[in-house]
Amino acid sequence: MTVQGTCDPRFSQVAEEFDRNLALRGEVGASVCVVLDGEVVVDLWGGEAAPGVPWLHDTIGHVWSCTKGATALCAHMLSARGELDLDAPVTRYWPEYGTHGKGPTLVRHLLSHQAGLPALREPLPDGAFYDWKLMADRLAGEQPFWEPGTRHGYHALTFGYLVGEVVRRVSGRSLGTFFREEVAEPLGLDFWLGLPEEHEGRVAPTIPADPPTDPPTFYVKAFTDPGSIPALLLANQGGYMTTPGESDSREAHAAEFGAVGAVTNARGLAGMYRPLSLGGGGLVTEEQVAVMGLTASAGTDAVLAVPTRFSTGFMKAADNRYLPPADSEGALLSATAFGHAGMGGSLGFCDPAARLAFGYTMNKQGIGLGVNPRGQALTDATYLSLGYRQAHGGIWYAPRD
To answer: Left, alpha or beta for 310 (phi > 0: left; psi -120 to 50: alpha)?
Structure first.
């Protein structure tokens, strides 16, 4: 398939792996962008956005949980300004949240997937995810599945309402408005938490993953234990993930859905992380970037049932290669990197030590929730182009380390 764009010769390995993704790894349409020292060194796109429709320079798509990086950035911007204390109880900003023993929950627990609210027990009405007040009220009144702060479990769909409601309470603006006015517009990003209708024609529809012969443990649990957290998470979301095509509907794209709803491309993801790769770039302070990259929760995930690592709002490197194949997806980055993957394989991250920002988006999903071989091959090629080496634990190390 035709590949277009630009690539600095130093990063030719990235271009080669992008070609291999399209030719050999089942890629349909995709984009990849690498920014080093603030300069774009890779900006490639190719394949098809839809049958017979080429992926163009300005094609955008649903990036699923890469959205969480944008939502977390909004919270950290408020923290850097002294308006939000990550160590304060959530009830300081959201008084209604303190029911059912949630009073001691700290803001950082929301960001690090330690809040104990990865799902809701009582059935949600159709379209619930498009009703911000409904979701915030239901979460405020929900009993946690574990004592907040004592363990971590991926808040795949609730993260955006939990963190986003704090952003809304502190800033006085909706999450999508705050992100647009404070991040996307100042940086000139084609990155949307609430896509305007005039951009709908540029969206590459999501192509669901092929049915797995060996599904991840998370899905096995969801389909065999109706009372489990995975089952509640997947089944009780107002039709967003259970109604075919709903997540790519106009209503879904327009919603300010801070967990999995963003629409952008690789250039948008890399562009969002670019300032952070340079020490904050006017969005946050250098001290805040250090906080953003510090691991806050790690170990076996109470929801996904595999090892995960999170900072306050971002994924950290996690090596799951030696688990059974169905659960082997992780994120092989350097120890100083942080960002977020999206369901099916999209990825955005920065590595401040390398002054690196990276984005990858695609329309054909893989079966897992982490970085699959297509995105990992591009990440690996990026680090190899910088002279990094991969040692124990799958972590990438700079030549000087």
So the answer is: beta
Q: Which residue has the tokens 């938490």?
A: 193
Q: Which fold has domain 56-71+180-364?
A: Beta-lactamase (3.40.710)
- The encoded tokens of residue 353 equal 């030590």
Is 328 noted as a catalytic residue in this protein?
Answer: no
Separation between Cα atoms, residue 131 and residue 328, nearest integer Å: 35
Q: How far is CA 91 from CA 117, 118, 141, 152, 333, in A?
A: 15, 19, 13, 20, 35
- Sequence spans of domains, the chain: 56-71+180-364
Amino acid at 364: K
DSSP code string of 223-236: HH-TTSHHHHHHH-
Give residues with Cβ within 8 angstroms of 236, minimum separation 6: 119, 120, 121, 123, 124
Of these residues, 65, 79, 334, 385, which one is catalytic?
65
Distance CA 1, CA 18 (A): 11
The DSSP H or E segment spanning 380 is: helix 373-385
Residue pLDDT, tens place only, 17-54: 999 999 999 999 999 999 999 999 999 999 999 999 99
How large is the average pLDDT for residues 280-305? 97
What is the reported pTM?
0.98
Written as six digits, the tokens of 183 are 């991040």
